[in-house]
Amino acid sequence: MNDNSIIEEINTWTTPFYVTQMPDHAFLKDALLAAVYQQKSLQTTAIESRIAPKAKHALHESTLEFLELADANIMEAKRVLEELVLEIAASVNKAFWPEDMEADAHIIESWYHVTQNGGYHDVHSHPNCSWCGIYYLSPGDSKEEGNGGLNRFYDPRVNAEHYADPGTAYLGGQGVWDFTPTEGQIIIFPSYLKHSALPYFGDTDRVVIAFNCIIEAY
């Protein structure tokens, strides 16, 4: 190699994640938790959505319309979440949207998880939407080391591990990314990402509100 050669590193196909705090969490938390537990008390089966029940253990899941309930606090939470997703989508797509384009974000599915000791959700992704989010209403004891309850995200490069030698060692540290939630946090991510909720061990329920969102232009 010529001593004057310049090797340029180009990192492509990055996957954006966004983490923020629910602005009105202190105000909304108790009302949202009350709504979650009220709906949970009405459930006739643990997985009311009836979606992949064998992938979920020791948790309660609502139907997919939780944020559609006619409750002022739920409606406010939905409004804030849609505004956050729209802000993110507009930012990440800035170079690809026409300058005069207007858009709205619409949460098309939303549900809660109330996870008890030993509960988990196997690996999955969310079709039929562009962005997904998890609002950690009350992460329980997830923050304590060894108690689990983390959300794990998986490398979307499906062919990355087809061959392994010392030249691919750098991939080993990028296979998964574990997110430790704290109360009031929201994580928003592209829908194509596979993810799971690792087994949770704690005396307090782990309560989250999850949602799927689409962007419509006009």
UniProtKB/TrEMBL annotation:
InterPro entries in the cross-refs: CHP02466
One Pfam family from the record: 2OG-FeII_Oxy_5
Protein name according to UniProt: 2OG-Fe(II) oxygenase family protein
Species, as recorded: Marinomonas colpomeniae
